């Protein structure tokens, strides 16, 4: 696989994806996980277009578009300590710098974010690079089916900043549709759900549950992503066998195990005690990367060590095309389906995106001249099916804004919990991420 250097957006998305993964894993150590970091990032990036001040800073940091001040400070402190023992003068200077940082953080618009959101040149622009990535992903002649759709639904009586609508249209192809949340909230919800269902080929139904929107809802941002790809090397259905999947050291569940013997990019990672196999889809622009621990070593799924070890740098290092040699592999992979729904408000808040959800602190004045908006929920729903032919996956995210508000044959048998990522190889963007712990 010829994978190129990750773009800034791809790096941000993958870093955010792994941070989110850790949060979701902490909430339930043994649950299946499946989501689209690309969908979540792009829906929140649309909100960020209208965010200002500290609200924008926090969103940019959580989505990993900009480094946190804390991380920068730690880096600076480490360098300082490394060079010399700190003198009194240095610690005075440090205090002064910390004070300046705090003042900058609380000022309406931090310099570095101003540059990021309203760039002098398009290079640093998060939103322009999302637009670029979207155009790379969606190609008429692609050997896979991939569609990404963005849309805004705004309360018809509400005045939105014209600039905000123009920017979301320009970068995300997102039209602003007027709906009547005040008098007909449920009809608007049904309308949004049927659009999402249509965009995901019927896979994502009822993204917004009853009462997810009400008469105080002003804006719903929706991103839907659908992917269907056939394996470059398909499994033969008559090779699929009944097998046992070990969900822990002591328990198993039955699965249909697909089998084939073929050459695949494979690497062993001793430091994480796992193997990584790459399964390209037709055309080789997209691949599924499977991270399989050698054994179940802990008392839950056997994935704890790997999840702890996995950073952005390691992810890139371990999955580099020149690291993964083509190897003859006896491969076993379960046939599986997943459908997961997440309300991400608490998760995002715990990651540092606090102000956007707080009615007293939220600054979404780039969307509304009245500056009376608050992000009330972020809902994400994702679907995946992996079978002999390939993979079908879909996801949708809605952000609701309210007023108030080469060796001998190797064996790679995924008969115990594993992590997997679906990556767009030319841009190195992770479109979907998951953890398979237990057959349904």
Structural overview:
With 440 residues, this protein is of the alpha+beta class. It has 2 domains: 8-64 and 114-229 and 338-403, Antithrombin, Chain I, domain 2; 237-335 and 408-436, Roll (Alpha-1-antitrypsin, domain 1). The protein is built from 12 helices and 15 strands. It has helices at 8-27, 37-49, 53-62, 69-83, 88-106, 111-117, 126-137, 162-172, 181-199, 304-309, 312-318, 345-350; strands at residues 33-35, 145-155, 175-179, 217-230, 241-246, 252-269, 274-280, 286-293, 325-334, 336-343, 373-386, 390-403, 410-413, 418-424, 429-436. Strands 1, 5, 6, 7, 8, 9, 13, 14 and 15 form a 9-stranded mixed beta sheet that branches. Helix 2 runs antiparallel to helix 3 (53-62). The radius of gyration is 23 Å and the shape is elongated. Mean pLDDT is 82; it is low at 76-89 and 95-124.
Give a quick rundown of the structure.
The chain has 440 residues and is α+β, with helices and mostly antiparallel strands. The chain has two domains: 8-64 and 114-229 and 338-403, Antithrombin, Chain I, domain 2 (2-Layer Sandwich); 237-335 and 408-436, Roll (Alpha-1-antitrypsin, domain 1). It has helices at 8-27, 37-49, 53-62, 69-83, 88-106, 111-117, 126-137, 162-172, 181-199, 304-309, 312-318, 345-350, and strands spanning 33-35, 145-155, 175-179, 217-230, 241-246, 252-269, 274-280, 286-293, 325-334, 336-343, 373-386, 390-403, 410-413, 418-424, 429-436.
């Amino acid at each position: 696989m010829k994978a190129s250097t990750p773009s800034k957006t791809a790096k941000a998305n993958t870093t955010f994806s792994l941070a989110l993964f850790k949060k979701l894993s902490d909430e339930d150590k043994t649950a299946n996980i499946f989501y689209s970091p690309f969908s979540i990032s792009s829906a929140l990036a649309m909100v960020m277009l209208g965010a200002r001040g500290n609200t924008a800073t926090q969103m940019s940091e959580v989505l990993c578009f900009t480094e946190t001040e804390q991380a920068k400070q730690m880096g600076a402190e480490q360098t300082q300590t490394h060079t010399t023992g700190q003198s009194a003068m240095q610690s005075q200077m440090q205090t002064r710098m910390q004070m300046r940082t705090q003042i900058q953080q609380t000022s309406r618009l931090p310099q570095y974010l101003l540059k990021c959101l309203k760039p002098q040149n398009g290079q640093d622009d998060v939103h322009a690079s999302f637009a670029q990535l979207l155009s790379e992903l969606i190609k008429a002649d692609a050997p896979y089916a991939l569609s990404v759709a963005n849309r805004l639904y705004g309360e018809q009586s509400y005045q939105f900043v014209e600039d905000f609508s123009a920017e979301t249209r320009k970068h995300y192809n997102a039209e602003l549709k007027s709906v009547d949340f005040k008098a007909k909230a449920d009809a608007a919800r049904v309308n949004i759900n049927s659009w999402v269902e249509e965009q995901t080929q019927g896979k994502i139904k009822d993204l917004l549950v009853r009462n997810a929107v009400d008469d105080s809802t002003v804006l719903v941002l929706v991103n839907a992503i659908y992917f269907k790809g056939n394996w470059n090397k398909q499994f033969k259905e008559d090779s699929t066998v009944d097998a046992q999947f070990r969900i822990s050291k002591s328990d198993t569940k039955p699965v249909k195990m697909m089998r084939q013997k073929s050459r695949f990019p494979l690497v062993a990672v001793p430091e994480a005690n796992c193997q990584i196999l790459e399964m390209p889809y037709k055309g080789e622009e997209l691949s599924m990367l499977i991270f399989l621990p050698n054994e179940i070593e802990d008392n839950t799924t056997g994935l704890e060590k790997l999840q702890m070890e996995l950073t952005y740098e390691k992810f890139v290092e371990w999955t580099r095309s020149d690291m993964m040699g083509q190897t003859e592999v006896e491969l076993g992979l379960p046939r599986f389906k997943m459908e997961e729904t997440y309300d991400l408000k608490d998760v995002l808040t715990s990651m540092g995106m606090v102000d956007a959800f707080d009615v007293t602190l939220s600054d979404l004045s780039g969307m509304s001249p009245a500056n009376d908006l608050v992000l009330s929920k972020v809902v994400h729903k994702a679907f995946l099916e992996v079978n002999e032919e390939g993979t079908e996956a879909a996801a949708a995210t809605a952000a609701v804004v309210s007023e108030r508000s080469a060796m001998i044959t190797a064996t790679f048998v995924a008969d115990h919990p594993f992590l997997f990522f679906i990556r767009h190889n030319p841009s190195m963007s992770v479109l979907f991420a998951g953890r398979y712990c237990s057959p349904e």
